[in-house]
Predict the structure.
Amino acid sequence: MLLSALKRFLIGQPLKSAELGEQKLNKTKALAILSSDALSSVAYGPEQILIVLVTISTVALWYSIPIGVGVLVLLLALILSYRQIIFAYPHGGGAYVVSKENLGVNAGLLAGGSLLVDYILTVAVSISAGTDAITSAFPQLHPYNVDIATLLVVAITILNLRGITESASILAYPVYLFILALFILIGAGLYKGMTGAVSPDMHPSLGTPVAGITLFLLLKAFASGSSALTGVEAISNAIPNFKDPGPNNASKTLAAMGLLLAILFSGIVYLAYAYGIAPKAQETVVSQIASQTFGRNYMYYFIQGTTAMILVLAANTGYSAFPLLAVNLARDKYIARMFTIRGDRLGYSNGIIFLSIMSIILIIAFKGRTEHLIPLYAVGVFIPFTLAQTGMLVKWVREKPKGWLVKLTINLIGALISFTVMLIFFITKLGQVWPVFIFLPLIVYTFHRIKRHYEAVGEQLRITTCEPAVPIEGNVMIVPVAGITHVVENSLNYAKSLSPDQIIAVYVAFDRDTEKQFQEKWADWQPDVRLVTLHSHYRSIIQPLTKFIDTVEHKAKESNFRVTVVIPQFIPKKSWQHALHNQSSLLIRAFLLYRKDLIVTTVPYHLKK
Protein backbone atom coordinates (compact mmCIF):
# COMPACT_ATOMS: atom_id res chain seq x y z
CA MET A 1 0.00 0.00 0.00
CA LEU A 2 2.83 2.36 0.88
CA LEU A 3 4.64 1.57 -2.39
CA SER A 4 1.43 2.14 -4.34
CA ALA A 5 0.89 5.51 -2.63
CA LEU A 6 4.50 6.49 -3.34
CA LYS A 7 4.10 5.50 -7.00
CA ARG A 8 0.94 7.59 -7.32
CA PHE A 9 2.70 10.55 -5.69
CA LEU A 10 5.71 10.34 -8.01
CA ILE A 11 4.07 9.20 -11.25
CA GLY A 12 0.49 10.42 -10.92
CA GLN A 13 -2.87 8.74 -11.42
CA PRO A 14 -3.24 6.29 -14.33
CA LEU A 15 -4.59 7.62 -17.63
CA LYS A 16 -7.15 5.82 -19.77
CA SER A 17 -6.10 4.47 -23.16
CA ALA A 18 -8.73 6.76 -24.70
CA GLU A 19 -6.72 9.75 -23.44
CA LEU A 20 -3.76 8.91 -25.69
CA GLY A 21 -4.68 11.67 -28.14
CA GLU A 22 -4.33 14.23 -25.36
CA GLN A 23 -0.70 13.15 -24.90
CA LYS A 24 0.35 14.41 -28.33
CA LEU A 25 2.75 17.35 -28.58
CA ASN A 26 2.33 20.69 -30.29
CA LYS A 27 5.30 22.26 -32.09
CA THR A 28 6.32 24.46 -29.16
CA LYS A 29 6.57 21.60 -26.68
CA ALA A 30 8.04 19.21 -29.24
CA LEU A 31 10.82 21.68 -30.05
CA ALA A 32 11.67 21.84 -26.35
CA ILE A 33 11.93 18.12 -25.62
CA LEU A 34 13.05 16.73 -29.00
CA SER A 35 15.58 19.46 -29.81
CA SER A 36 17.15 19.77 -26.37
CA ASP A 37 19.94 17.31 -27.27
CA ALA A 38 20.88 19.11 -30.49
CA LEU A 39 20.60 22.60 -28.97
CA SER A 40 22.57 21.64 -25.86
CA SER A 41 25.44 20.40 -28.00
CA VAL A 42 26.48 24.01 -28.66
CA ALA A 43 27.74 23.92 -25.06
CA TYR A 44 30.36 21.28 -25.90
CA GLY A 45 30.55 20.98 -29.73
CA PRO A 46 32.66 24.14 -30.26
CA GLU A 47 34.78 23.13 -27.27
CA GLN A 48 35.58 19.80 -28.92
CA ILE A 49 36.96 21.68 -31.95
CA LEU A 50 39.19 23.83 -29.73
CA ILE A 51 40.45 20.82 -27.73
CA VAL A 52 41.89 19.35 -30.95
CA LEU A 53 43.30 22.62 -32.32
CA VAL A 54 45.01 23.68 -29.09
CA THR A 55 47.21 20.57 -29.25
CA ILE A 56 49.18 22.41 -31.97
CA SER A 57 49.16 25.91 -30.44
CA THR A 58 46.78 28.70 -29.49
CA VAL A 59 47.53 30.31 -32.86
CA ALA A 60 45.73 27.39 -34.54
CA LEU A 61 42.46 28.35 -32.84
CA TRP A 62 41.51 30.58 -35.80
CA TYR A 63 40.82 27.40 -37.76
CA SER A 64 37.67 27.02 -35.64
CA ILE A 65 35.95 29.54 -37.95
CA PRO A 66 36.26 27.60 -41.26
CA ILE A 67 35.66 24.33 -39.41
CA GLY A 68 32.48 25.85 -37.93
CA VAL A 69 31.31 26.79 -41.45
CA GLY A 70 31.86 23.18 -42.53
CA VAL A 71 29.72 21.95 -39.62
CA LEU A 72 26.92 24.34 -40.66
CA VAL A 73 27.01 22.96 -44.23
CA LEU A 74 26.64 19.46 -42.80
CA LEU A 75 23.76 20.64 -40.60
CA LEU A 76 21.88 22.04 -43.62
CA ALA A 77 22.33 18.78 -45.54
CA LEU A 78 21.01 16.74 -42.62
CA ILE A 79 18.00 18.99 -41.99
CA LEU A 80 16.94 18.78 -45.66
CA SER A 81 17.53 15.02 -45.74
CA TYR A 82 15.60 14.25 -42.56
CA ARG A 83 12.76 16.48 -43.69
CA GLN A 84 12.31 14.08 -46.62
CA ILE A 85 12.42 11.08 -44.29
CA ILE A 86 9.65 12.61 -42.16
CA PHE A 87 7.28 12.83 -45.14
CA ALA A 88 8.34 9.50 -46.66
CA TYR A 89 7.90 7.61 -43.35
CA PRO A 90 5.22 9.52 -41.41
CA HIS A 91 4.75 6.77 -38.82
CA GLY A 92 8.21 7.29 -37.36
CA GLY A 93 11.04 4.84 -36.93
CA GLY A 94 13.60 7.08 -38.64
CA ALA A 95 16.86 5.47 -39.72
CA TYR A 96 15.82 1.99 -38.53
CA VAL A 97 12.70 1.79 -40.70
CA VAL A 98 14.31 3.53 -43.70
CA SER A 99 17.36 1.23 -43.65
CA LYS A 100 15.36 -1.96 -43.03
CA GLU A 101 12.91 -1.34 -45.87
CA ASN A 102 15.44 -0.16 -48.45
CA LEU A 103 18.81 -1.69 -47.55
CA GLY A 104 17.78 -4.92 -45.84
CA VAL A 105 17.27 -6.26 -42.33
CA ASN A 106 20.91 -6.16 -41.23
CA ALA A 107 21.32 -2.53 -42.27
CA GLY A 108 18.15 -1.68 -40.36
CA LEU A 109 19.35 -3.52 -37.27
CA LEU A 110 22.72 -1.80 -37.51
CA ALA A 111 20.99 1.58 -37.61
CA GLY A 112 18.55 0.63 -34.85
CA GLY A 113 21.27 -0.80 -32.62
CA SER A 114 23.47 2.27 -33.15
CA LEU A 115 20.63 4.58 -32.18
CA LEU A 116 19.64 2.57 -29.10
CA VAL A 117 23.22 2.77 -27.83
CA ASP A 118 23.42 6.41 -28.86
CA TYR A 119 20.33 7.36 -26.85
CA ILE A 120 21.83 5.70 -23.79
CA LEU A 121 25.02 7.69 -24.40
CA THR A 122 22.88 10.82 -24.91
CA VAL A 123 21.58 10.54 -21.37
CA ALA A 124 24.96 9.69 -19.84
CA VAL A 125 26.89 12.40 -21.72
CA SER A 126 24.23 15.09 -21.32
CA ILE A 127 23.75 14.54 -17.62
CA SER A 128 27.51 14.43 -17.04
CA ALA A 129 28.01 17.62 -19.09
CA GLY A 130 25.26 19.33 -17.09
CA THR A 131 26.93 18.24 -13.89
CA ASP A 132 30.21 19.69 -15.18
CA ALA A 133 28.48 23.03 -15.79
CA ILE A 134 27.19 23.02 -12.22
CA THR A 135 30.59 22.19 -10.74
CA SER A 136 32.28 24.80 -12.98
CA ALA A 137 30.21 27.43 -11.19
CA PHE A 138 30.64 25.74 -7.78
CA PRO A 139 34.07 24.03 -7.79
CA GLN A 140 33.59 22.67 -4.27
CA LEU A 141 31.05 20.20 -5.73
CA HIS A 142 33.59 18.48 -8.05
CA PRO A 143 34.06 15.44 -5.75
CA TYR A 144 30.30 14.71 -5.96
CA ASN A 145 29.99 14.59 -9.77
CA VAL A 146 28.78 10.97 -9.90
CA ASP A 147 26.26 11.43 -7.07
CA ILE A 148 24.81 14.59 -8.64
CA ALA A 149 24.62 12.98 -12.09
CA THR A 150 22.86 9.88 -10.73
CA LEU A 151 20.28 11.96 -8.85
CA LEU A 152 19.61 13.99 -12.00
CA VAL A 153 19.00 10.79 -14.02
CA VAL A 154 16.52 9.59 -11.38
CA ALA A 155 14.73 12.95 -11.39
CA ILE A 156 14.37 13.14 -15.17
CA THR A 157 13.27 9.49 -15.28
CA ILE A 158 10.43 10.19 -12.82
CA LEU A 159 9.45 13.23 -14.85
CA ASN A 160 9.22 11.17 -18.04
CA LEU A 161 7.26 8.40 -16.32
CA ARG A 162 4.62 11.03 -15.58
CA GLY A 163 3.86 11.25 -19.31
CA ILE A 164 5.17 13.04 -22.36
CA THR A 165 2.76 16.01 -22.18
CA GLU A 166 3.40 16.74 -18.53
CA SER A 167 7.17 16.39 -18.89
CA ALA A 168 7.12 18.64 -21.98
CA SER A 169 5.13 21.30 -20.14
CA ILE A 170 7.75 21.41 -17.40
CA LEU A 171 10.85 21.04 -19.58
CA ALA A 172 9.86 23.69 -22.13
CA TYR A 173 10.67 26.54 -19.73
CA PRO A 174 14.36 25.78 -19.10
CA VAL A 175 14.95 24.99 -22.80
CA TYR A 176 13.58 28.34 -23.94
CA LEU A 177 15.37 30.08 -21.07
CA PHE A 178 18.63 28.58 -22.37
CA ILE A 179 17.91 29.83 -25.88
CA LEU A 180 17.18 33.30 -24.47
CA ALA A 181 20.34 33.23 -22.34
CA LEU A 182 22.55 32.28 -25.29
CA PHE A 183 20.98 34.94 -27.50
CA ILE A 184 21.73 37.52 -24.79
CA LEU A 185 25.29 36.19 -24.43
CA ILE A 186 25.95 36.19 -28.18
CA GLY A 187 24.30 39.60 -28.62
CA ALA A 188 26.32 41.14 -25.77
CA GLY A 189 29.54 39.58 -27.07
CA LEU A 190 28.98 40.87 -30.59
CA TYR A 191 28.16 44.32 -29.21
CA LYS A 192 31.42 44.38 -27.27
CA GLY A 193 33.28 43.42 -30.43
CA MET A 194 31.61 46.12 -32.52
CA THR A 195 32.30 48.82 -29.92
CA GLY A 196 35.98 47.93 -29.72
CA ALA A 197 35.83 46.44 -26.22
CA VAL A 198 37.42 43.23 -27.52
CA SER A 199 41.08 43.80 -28.40
CA PRO A 200 42.30 42.27 -31.69
CA ASP A 201 45.36 41.10 -29.75
CA MET A 202 43.18 38.59 -27.91
CA HIS A 203 42.99 36.29 -30.94
CA PRO A 204 45.15 35.33 -33.93
CA SER A 205 44.16 36.83 -37.28
CA LEU A 206 42.36 34.62 -39.78
CA GLY A 207 44.89 33.04 -42.12
CA THR A 208 47.83 33.26 -39.68
CA PRO A 209 50.34 30.53 -40.64
CA VAL A 210 50.52 27.70 -38.10
CA ALA A 211 53.52 25.42 -37.92
CA GLY A 212 52.69 21.74 -37.64
CA ILE A 213 49.06 21.97 -38.81
CA THR A 214 48.01 18.99 -40.92
CA LEU A 215 44.94 17.92 -42.87
CA PHE A 216 44.62 14.97 -40.50
CA LEU A 217 44.33 17.28 -37.50
CA LEU A 218 41.85 19.60 -39.24
CA LEU A 219 39.65 16.63 -40.18
CA LYS A 220 39.86 15.40 -36.61
CA ALA A 221 38.72 18.83 -35.34
CA PHE A 222 35.86 18.86 -37.90
CA ALA A 223 34.73 15.41 -36.80
CA SER A 224 34.85 16.54 -33.16
CA GLY A 225 32.80 19.63 -33.96
CA SER A 226 30.24 17.48 -35.75
CA SER A 227 29.28 16.09 -32.34
CA ALA A 228 27.18 19.27 -32.15
CA LEU A 229 24.79 17.62 -34.64
CA THR A 230 23.84 14.69 -32.43
CA GLY A 231 20.10 14.65 -31.82
CA VAL A 232 19.13 15.99 -35.27
CA GLU A 233 17.54 12.61 -36.11
CA ALA A 234 15.35 12.41 -32.99
CA ILE A 235 12.38 14.24 -34.54
CA SER A 236 12.10 11.70 -37.39
CA ASN A 237 11.90 8.89 -34.81
CA ALA A 238 9.19 10.59 -32.76
CA ILE A 239 6.58 11.61 -35.38
CA PRO A 240 3.84 9.60 -33.55
CA ASN A 241 4.25 11.99 -30.59
CA PHE A 242 3.15 15.02 -32.66
CA LYS A 243 -0.37 16.34 -32.92
CA ASP A 244 -2.02 15.90 -36.30
CA PRO A 245 -0.92 16.51 -38.96
CA GLY A 246 2.17 14.80 -37.54
CA PRO A 247 4.56 15.01 -40.53
CA ASN A 248 3.85 18.70 -41.15
CA ASN A 249 4.34 19.63 -37.52
CA ALA A 250 7.47 17.48 -37.29
CA SER A 251 9.04 19.07 -40.39
CA LYS A 252 8.38 22.59 -39.09
CA THR A 253 9.86 21.67 -35.74
CA LEU A 254 12.92 20.23 -37.49
CA ALA A 255 13.40 23.45 -39.48
CA ALA A 256 13.10 25.59 -36.33
CA MET A 257 15.61 23.40 -34.54
CA GLY A 258 18.07 23.64 -37.45
CA LEU A 259 17.82 27.45 -37.54
CA LEU A 260 18.30 27.83 -33.78
CA LEU A 261 21.20 25.36 -33.74
CA ALA A 262 22.94 27.19 -36.61
CA ILE A 263 22.65 30.59 -34.89
CA LEU A 264 23.76 29.39 -31.45
CA PHE A 265 26.63 27.25 -32.76
CA SER A 266 27.93 30.08 -34.98
CA GLY A 267 27.73 32.58 -32.14
CA ILE A 268 29.65 30.43 -29.65
CA VAL A 269 32.36 29.53 -32.20
CA TYR A 270 32.84 33.17 -33.13
CA LEU A 271 32.97 34.49 -29.55
CA ALA A 272 35.41 31.75 -28.52
CA TYR A 273 37.65 32.88 -31.39
CA ALA A 274 37.18 36.60 -30.69
CA TYR A 275 38.10 36.23 -27.01
CA GLY A 276 41.01 33.90 -27.83
CA ILE A 277 39.58 31.26 -25.51
CA ALA A 278 41.40 27.96 -25.07
CA PRO A 279 39.74 24.97 -23.37
CA LYS A 280 40.45 24.39 -19.66
CA ALA A 281 40.01 21.24 -17.58
CA GLN A 282 38.07 22.94 -14.77
CA GLU A 283 36.00 25.46 -16.78
CA THR A 284 33.91 25.07 -19.90
CA VAL A 285 34.26 27.31 -22.96
CA VAL A 286 30.75 28.75 -22.47
CA SER A 287 31.66 29.57 -18.87
CA GLN A 288 34.79 31.42 -20.05
CA ILE A 289 32.82 33.36 -22.70
CA ALA A 290 30.17 34.36 -20.14
CA SER A 291 32.87 35.38 -17.65
CA GLN A 292 34.64 37.58 -20.19
CA THR A 293 31.38 39.10 -21.43
CA PHE A 294 29.66 39.84 -18.12
CA GLY A 295 32.18 39.08 -15.38
CA ARG A 296 31.20 36.82 -12.48
CA ASN A 297 27.91 38.57 -11.81
CA TYR A 298 24.26 37.52 -11.90
CA MET A 299 24.27 37.30 -15.71
CA TYR A 300 27.17 34.86 -15.59
CA TYR A 301 25.28 32.61 -13.19
CA PHE A 302 22.13 32.95 -15.29
CA ILE A 303 24.08 31.71 -18.35
CA GLN A 304 25.68 28.88 -16.36
CA GLY A 305 22.41 27.91 -14.71
CA THR A 306 20.48 27.69 -17.97
CA THR A 307 23.39 25.88 -19.65
CA ALA A 308 23.46 23.32 -16.85
CA MET A 309 19.69 22.86 -17.18
CA ILE A 310 19.75 22.38 -20.96
CA LEU A 311 22.64 19.92 -20.71
CA VAL A 312 20.72 17.91 -18.15
CA LEU A 313 17.46 18.17 -20.08
CA ALA A 314 19.18 17.18 -23.33
CA ALA A 315 18.86 13.71 -21.90
CA ASN A 316 15.14 14.08 -22.50
CA THR A 317 15.68 13.63 -26.23
CA GLY A 318 16.90 10.13 -25.40
CA TYR A 319 13.89 9.54 -23.16
CA SER A 320 11.56 10.66 -25.96
CA ALA A 321 13.19 8.76 -28.83
CA PHE A 322 14.56 5.56 -27.21
CA PRO A 323 11.16 4.09 -26.17
CA LEU A 324 9.65 4.70 -29.62
CA LEU A 325 12.59 3.10 -31.40
CA ALA A 326 12.43 0.17 -28.95
CA VAL A 327 8.72 -0.24 -29.79
CA ASN A 328 9.52 -0.56 -33.51
CA LEU A 329 12.21 -3.17 -32.82
CA ALA A 330 9.97 -5.05 -30.37
CA ARG A 331 7.08 -5.16 -32.83
CA ASP A 332 9.45 -6.75 -35.32
CA LYS A 333 10.44 -9.22 -32.54
CA TYR A 334 14.07 -8.14 -32.33
CA ILE A 335 13.87 -7.17 -28.66
CA ALA A 336 11.56 -8.17 -25.81
CA ARG A 337 7.89 -7.38 -26.29
CA MET A 338 7.72 -5.75 -22.88
CA PHE A 339 8.97 -2.57 -24.62
CA THR A 340 5.62 -2.30 -26.47
CA ILE A 341 3.61 -2.03 -23.24
CA ARG A 342 2.36 1.41 -22.22
CA GLY A 343 2.59 2.35 -18.57
CA ASP A 344 0.06 4.03 -16.29
CA ARG A 345 0.68 7.42 -17.89
CA LEU A 346 0.57 6.08 -21.47
CA GLY A 347 4.32 6.31 -21.98
CA TYR A 348 6.42 3.26 -22.81
CA SER A 349 7.65 2.99 -19.23
CA ASN A 350 9.76 -0.17 -19.68
CA GLY A 351 11.88 1.62 -22.27
CA ILE A 352 12.23 4.67 -20.02
CA ILE A 353 13.32 2.60 -17.00
CA PHE A 354 15.75 0.48 -19.04
CA LEU A 355 17.31 3.62 -20.52
CA SER A 356 17.81 5.20 -17.09
CA ILE A 357 19.42 2.07 -15.61
CA MET A 358 21.90 1.73 -18.47
CA SER A 359 22.76 5.44 -18.30
CA ILE A 360 23.47 5.29 -14.56
CA ILE A 361 25.72 2.28 -15.12
CA LEU A 362 27.71 4.27 -17.71
CA ILE A 363 27.99 7.32 -15.45
CA ILE A 364 29.26 5.20 -12.55
CA ALA A 365 31.63 3.20 -14.78
CA PHE A 366 33.22 6.38 -16.20
CA LYS A 367 33.01 8.24 -12.86
CA GLY A 368 31.05 11.06 -14.45
CA ARG A 369 33.85 11.87 -16.94
CA THR A 370 31.95 10.87 -20.05
CA GLU A 371 33.80 13.25 -22.40
CA HIS A 372 35.66 10.12 -23.50
CA LEU A 373 32.30 8.84 -24.77
CA ILE A 374 31.60 11.85 -27.01
CA PRO A 375 33.45 10.41 -30.06
CA LEU A 376 31.63 7.09 -29.55
CA TYR A 377 28.41 9.02 -29.07
CA ALA A 378 28.95 10.99 -32.31
CA VAL A 379 30.01 8.04 -34.49
CA GLY A 380 26.95 6.18 -33.21
CA VAL A 381 24.83 8.90 -34.82
CA PHE A 382 26.69 9.13 -38.13
CA ILE A 383 26.32 5.41 -38.84
CA PRO A 384 22.48 5.68 -38.94
CA PHE A 385 22.79 9.11 -40.63
CA THR A 386 24.69 7.44 -43.48
CA LEU A 387 22.42 4.40 -43.64
CA ALA A 388 19.26 6.51 -43.61
CA GLN A 389 20.40 8.78 -46.44
CA THR A 390 21.60 5.78 -48.49
CA GLY A 391 18.28 4.04 -47.90
CA MET A 392 16.42 7.09 -49.20
CA LEU A 393 18.60 7.05 -52.33
CA VAL A 394 17.50 3.47 -53.01
CA LYS A 395 13.86 4.42 -52.35
CA TRP A 396 13.87 7.32 -54.85
CA VAL A 397 15.65 5.30 -57.56
CA ARG A 398 13.23 2.39 -57.10
CA GLU A 399 9.96 4.35 -56.85
CA LYS A 400 10.77 7.47 -58.97
CA PRO A 401 7.96 9.68 -57.59
CA LYS A 402 7.26 13.17 -58.87
CA GLY A 403 10.30 15.41 -58.36
CA TRP A 404 12.44 12.43 -57.41
CA LEU A 405 15.63 13.83 -58.94
CA VAL A 406 15.64 16.80 -56.54
CA LYS A 407 14.96 14.48 -53.61
CA LEU A 408 17.66 12.12 -54.83
CA THR A 409 20.18 14.97 -55.00
CA ILE A 410 19.41 16.14 -51.46
CA ASN A 411 19.80 12.65 -50.01
CA LEU A 412 22.91 12.00 -52.12
CA ILE A 413 24.62 15.08 -50.68
CA GLY A 414 23.52 14.08 -47.17
CA ALA A 415 24.77 10.52 -47.68
CA LEU A 416 28.16 11.62 -49.01
CA ILE A 417 28.79 14.13 -46.22
CA SER A 418 27.59 11.74 -43.50
CA PHE A 419 29.75 8.93 -44.88
CA THR A 420 32.75 11.26 -45.07
CA VAL A 421 32.33 12.38 -41.46
CA MET A 422 31.89 8.78 -40.34
CA LEU A 423 35.13 7.80 -42.09
CA ILE A 424 36.91 10.76 -40.51
CA PHE A 425 35.77 9.56 -37.10
CA PHE A 426 37.04 6.06 -37.73
CA ILE A 427 40.36 7.27 -39.14
CA THR A 428 41.14 10.11 -36.72
CA LYS A 429 39.61 8.70 -33.54
CA LEU A 430 40.11 4.97 -33.95
CA GLY A 431 41.59 4.72 -30.46
CA GLN A 432 38.32 6.06 -29.00
CA VAL A 433 35.70 4.53 -31.30
CA TRP A 434 37.11 1.01 -31.77
CA PRO A 435 34.47 -0.49 -29.36
CA VAL A 436 31.92 0.12 -32.15
CA PHE A 437 33.46 -2.79 -34.09
CA ILE A 438 32.73 -5.08 -31.14
CA PHE A 439 29.43 -4.05 -29.61
CA LEU A 440 27.48 -3.28 -32.81
CA PRO A 441 27.97 -6.79 -34.31
CA LEU A 442 27.10 -8.23 -30.89
CA ILE A 443 23.92 -6.17 -30.74
CA VAL A 444 22.87 -7.22 -34.26
CA TYR A 445 23.64 -10.86 -33.38
CA THR A 446 21.52 -10.55 -30.22
CA PHE A 447 18.64 -9.06 -32.24
CA HIS A 448 18.74 -12.08 -34.58
CA ARG A 449 18.88 -14.52 -31.65
CA ILE A 450 15.79 -12.97 -30.07
CA LYS A 451 13.97 -12.95 -33.44
CA ARG A 452 14.79 -16.62 -34.08
CA HIS A 453 13.63 -17.49 -30.60
CA TYR A 454 10.30 -15.70 -31.03
CA GLU A 455 9.76 -17.36 -34.42
CA ALA A 456 10.60 -20.83 -33.05
CA VAL A 457 8.23 -20.35 -30.15
CA GLY A 458 5.52 -18.99 -32.43
CA GLU A 459 5.87 -22.00 -34.72
CA GLN A 460 5.39 -24.40 -31.81
CA LEU A 461 2.47 -22.47 -30.35
CA ARG A 462 0.59 -21.84 -33.59
CA ILE A 463 -2.56 -23.94 -33.61
CA THR A 464 -2.79 -24.23 -37.39
CA THR A 465 0.73 -25.53 -37.93
CA CYS A 466 1.51 -27.59 -34.83
CA GLU A 467 0.60 -31.17 -34.20
CA PRO A 468 -2.65 -31.78 -32.25
CA ALA A 469 -2.34 -31.34 -28.50
CA VAL A 470 -2.33 -34.47 -26.40
CA PRO A 471 -5.44 -34.63 -24.17
CA ILE A 472 -4.82 -34.84 -20.44
CA GLU A 473 -6.66 -37.71 -18.73
CA GLY A 474 -8.14 -37.10 -15.89
CA ASN A 475 -15.76 -26.01 -8.45
CA VAL A 476 -15.20 -23.36 -11.11
CA MET A 477 -12.01 -22.99 -13.08
CA ILE A 478 -10.76 -19.64 -14.36
CA VAL A 479 -8.14 -19.72 -17.11
CA PRO A 480 -6.53 -16.37 -18.02
CA VAL A 481 -5.71 -16.46 -21.74
CA ALA A 482 -3.61 -14.16 -23.91
CA GLY A 483 -4.10 -15.79 -27.30
CA ILE A 484 -5.02 -18.95 -29.20
CA THR A 485 -1.97 -21.14 -28.76
CA HIS A 486 -0.98 -24.61 -27.62
CA VAL A 487 -0.09 -23.17 -24.23
CA VAL A 488 -3.73 -22.13 -23.74
CA GLU A 489 -5.01 -25.39 -25.24
CA ASN A 490 -2.83 -27.38 -22.84
CA SER A 491 -4.20 -25.44 -19.86
CA LEU A 492 -7.82 -25.89 -21.00
CA ASN A 493 -7.27 -29.64 -21.40
CA TYR A 494 -5.87 -29.76 -17.89
CA ALA A 495 -8.91 -27.88 -16.57
CA LYS A 496 -11.31 -30.19 -18.44
CA SER A 497 -9.56 -33.28 -17.07
CA LEU A 498 -10.58 -32.27 -13.56
CA SER A 499 -14.27 -32.36 -14.57
CA PRO A 500 -15.18 -28.93 -13.19
CA ASP A 501 -18.72 -27.64 -13.14
CA GLN A 502 -17.67 -24.70 -15.27
CA ILE A 503 -14.59 -23.44 -17.10
CA ILE A 504 -14.30 -19.70 -17.71
CA ALA A 505 -11.60 -18.40 -20.03
CA VAL A 506 -10.77 -14.75 -19.30
CA TYR A 507 -9.21 -12.40 -21.85
CA VAL A 508 -8.14 -8.84 -20.98
CA ALA A 509 -8.33 -6.50 -23.98
CA PHE A 510 -6.83 -3.04 -24.24
CA ASP A 511 -9.01 -1.86 -27.15
CA ARG A 512 -12.45 -2.76 -28.51
CA ASP A 513 -11.30 -3.94 -31.95
CA THR A 514 -8.90 -6.48 -30.46
CA GLU A 515 -11.61 -7.63 -28.06
CA LYS A 516 -14.12 -8.24 -30.86
CA GLN A 517 -11.59 -10.06 -33.05
CA PHE A 518 -10.59 -12.37 -30.21
CA GLN A 519 -14.22 -13.21 -29.37
CA GLU A 520 -14.83 -14.25 -32.99
CA LYS A 521 -11.71 -16.43 -33.12
CA TRP A 522 -12.56 -18.05 -29.77
CA ALA A 523 -16.10 -18.88 -30.85
CA ASP A 524 -14.68 -20.84 -33.79
CA TRP A 525 -11.92 -22.53 -31.77
CA GLN A 526 -13.49 -23.37 -28.36
CA PRO A 527 -17.26 -22.95 -28.67
CA ASP A 528 -17.85 -25.17 -25.61
CA VAL A 529 -15.70 -23.04 -23.28
CA ARG A 530 -17.22 -19.84 -21.97
CA LEU A 531 -15.13 -16.74 -22.76
CA VAL A 532 -15.31 -13.57 -20.70
CA THR A 533 -13.55 -10.52 -22.12
CA LEU A 534 -12.57 -7.68 -19.82
CA HIS A 535 -11.78 -4.26 -21.24
CA SER A 536 -8.90 -2.51 -19.46
CA HIS A 537 -8.87 1.27 -19.88
CA TYR A 538 -5.52 1.55 -18.10
CA ARG A 539 -3.72 -1.38 -19.83
CA SER A 540 -3.55 -3.34 -16.60
CA ILE A 541 -4.04 -7.10 -16.70
CA ILE A 542 -3.91 -7.71 -12.97
CA GLN A 543 -6.56 -5.24 -11.78
CA PRO A 544 -9.51 -6.29 -14.00
CA LEU A 545 -8.60 -9.97 -13.67
CA THR A 546 -8.43 -9.96 -9.87
CA LYS A 547 -11.67 -7.96 -9.71
CA PHE A 548 -13.37 -10.58 -11.90
CA ILE A 549 -11.95 -13.42 -9.78
CA ASP A 550 -13.30 -11.72 -6.65
CA THR A 551 -16.78 -11.53 -8.22
CA VAL A 552 -16.75 -15.19 -9.30
CA GLU A 553 -15.39 -16.30 -5.94
CA HIS A 554 -18.10 -14.43 -4.06
CA LYS A 555 -20.83 -16.15 -6.09
CA ALA A 556 -19.10 -19.52 -5.87
CA LYS A 557 -19.03 -19.37 -2.07
CA GLU A 558 -22.80 -19.00 -2.04
CA SER A 559 -22.99 -22.37 -3.84
CA ASN A 560 -20.21 -24.00 -1.78
CA PHE A 561 -17.85 -24.07 -4.79
CA ARG A 562 -14.13 -23.53 -4.72
CA VAL A 563 -12.46 -21.41 -7.38
CA THR A 564 -9.29 -22.58 -9.11
CA VAL A 565 -7.19 -20.27 -11.24
CA VAL A 566 -5.27 -22.15 -13.93
CA ILE A 567 -2.37 -20.04 -15.21
CA PRO A 568 -0.94 -21.03 -18.61
CA GLN A 569 2.84 -20.93 -18.75
CA PHE A 570 5.39 -22.38 -21.10
CA ILE A 571 8.93 -23.40 -20.38
CA PRO A 572 11.57 -22.56 -23.00
CA LYS A 573 14.71 -24.61 -23.40
CA LYS A 574 16.93 -21.83 -22.03
CA SER A 575 16.18 -20.06 -18.77
CA TRP A 576 17.07 -16.55 -20.05
CA GLN A 577 14.19 -16.78 -22.50
CA HIS A 578 11.63 -17.36 -19.74
CA ALA A 579 11.11 -13.69 -18.93
CA LEU A 580 10.60 -12.81 -22.61
CA HIS A 581 7.31 -14.70 -22.64
CA ASN A 582 5.94 -15.11 -19.13
CA GLN A 583 5.76 -11.58 -17.71
CA SER A 584 1.96 -11.72 -17.37
CA SER A 585 1.93 -15.27 -15.99
CA LEU A 586 4.50 -14.43 -13.34
CA LEU A 587 2.64 -11.28 -12.30
CA ILE A 588 -0.74 -13.03 -12.06
CA ARG A 589 0.76 -15.82 -9.97
CA ALA A 590 2.53 -13.34 -7.69
CA PHE A 591 -0.69 -11.39 -7.08
CA LEU A 592 -2.83 -14.46 -6.39
CA LEU A 593 -0.51 -16.71 -4.40
CA TYR A 594 -1.18 -14.90 -1.12
CA ARG A 595 -4.93 -15.64 -1.45
CA LYS A 596 -5.57 -18.58 0.85
CA ASP A 597 -9.15 -18.89 -0.39
CA LEU A 598 -8.01 -19.64 -3.96
CA ILE A 599 -6.37 -22.62 -5.58
CA VAL A 600 -3.72 -21.26 -7.93
CA THR A 601 -1.98 -23.66 -10.25
CA THR A 602 0.40 -23.15 -13.14
CA VAL A 603 0.17 -25.50 -16.12
CA PRO A 604 3.53 -25.72 -17.91
CA TYR A 605 3.95 -26.29 -21.62
CA HIS A 606 7.49 -27.34 -22.51
CA LEU A 607 8.94 -26.19 -25.79
CA LYS A 608 10.51 -28.97 -27.83
CA LYS A 609 13.28 -26.92 -29.44
Remarks:
- The chain is about 65% helix and 5% strand.
- Confidence is low (pLDDT under 50) at residues 469-474.
- The first helix runs from residue 2 to 11.
- The two ends are 42 Å apart (CA to CA).
